[in-house]
Amino acid sequence: MAGDLYLVPNVLTSPGVAGNPLEVIPASALAITARLDYFIAENAKTARAFLKAVAQTHPLALPLQQIRIEELNVNTEARRLPELLLPLVQGGSAGLLSEAGVPAVADPGADLVRVAHARGIRIHPLVGPSSLLLALMASGLNGQSFAFNGYLPVDAGERASRIKALEQRSQQERQTQLFIETPYRNAALFEALLRHCRADTLICVATNLTLDTESIHTRTARQWKEVGEDWARQLQKQPTVFLFLAS
Fold first, then answer.
1. Cα–Cα distance for residue pair 139/244, rounded to 1 Å
2. Which of 36, 107, 138, 143 shows its CA 20 to 30 Å from the CA of 80?
3. DSSP letter for each residue of 103-149
4. Where in the chain is the domain with CATH 3.30.950.10?
5. H/E element, 229
């Protein structure tokens, strides 16, 4: 009988910055994580840092150096996925660990989960922080209908066209649009939103979620322009979720 794949939530920044993972991850999820001896993670080094933090409150099944960690990231070839799942096909268990937040959402782990389903492996999503849902919850925008659009184009012209198309869709369907950006390009994206969104479109900027420096603000594009220049500087290199809803 095939084994189990646990989708392990991670903190939204490094454990050393966020503090003990127990603060944002349920004890039940940490207990399951601690008993696993095989993990599939985006980055082995940061996965070990996470497990080291978990061990502060939940003893690990094996010494950290003996826990097997295989990497799965954007550079992993699809043909390697069955190999990563082989111990589970043989009846073992593993944890799928994202760099931040929950696995398989805006994360390369989704492909692994799909292959696991095809091989009869049981999937167990564990409760933990999702920056997308936390931002949506706190935005005051439409939580009944929403769409996550990943990253917008880097090219300025293509990005402008995409923003306008999403704004039109948002207005027609009353649908909240969510997206993220590489932190060092946050300011450019924020400025593009203010430049291309209509004045009455509501824009939410949610930064450093779950941290002591958490900041969540929703304003119209017109209102944002009054503080936009200063705000853009504050966003640089800070994990941020952007949302908007057109009226």
1. 9
2. 36
3. TTSSSTHHHHHHHHHHTT-EEEEPP---HHHHHHHHH-S-SSSEEEE
4. 131-245
5. helix 221-235
State how far the Cα of 183 lies from the Cα of 241, in Å rounded to an integer: 10
For residues 192-220, one letter each, b for 16 or more C-beta atoms within 10 angstroms of the residue's C-beta and e for the rest, the string is bbbebbeeebbbbbbbbbbbeeeebebbb
CA 202 remoteness from chain centre: 23
Q: What is the mean pLDDT of each run of 10 residues along the chain (247 residues)?
A: 94 62 86 97 93 94 97 93 97 95 90 96 96 97 97 96 98 97 92 96 95 92 86 84 97
Pull the structure tokens for residue 184: 């060092």
Q: Check residue 106 and give its pLDDT.
A: 84
Which parts of the chain fold into alpha helices (H)? 15-18, 27-34, 44-54, 81-89, 109-118, 131-139, 156-173, 186-196, 221-235
Helix (H, G, I), strand (E, B) or coil at 68: strand
pTM score of the predicted model: 0.91
How many Cβ atoms sit within 10 Å of the Cβ of residue 58? 19
Q: What is the pLDDT of residue 213?
A: 87
pLDDT at residue 231 in the model: 77
Question: Is the CATH number of domain 4-125 3.40.1010.10?
Answer: yes
Which residues have C-beta within 8 Å of that of residue 203, sequence separation ≥ 6? Answer: 193, 194, 197, 218, 219, 220, 221, 224, 242, 243, 244
Residue 101 DSSP symbol: B
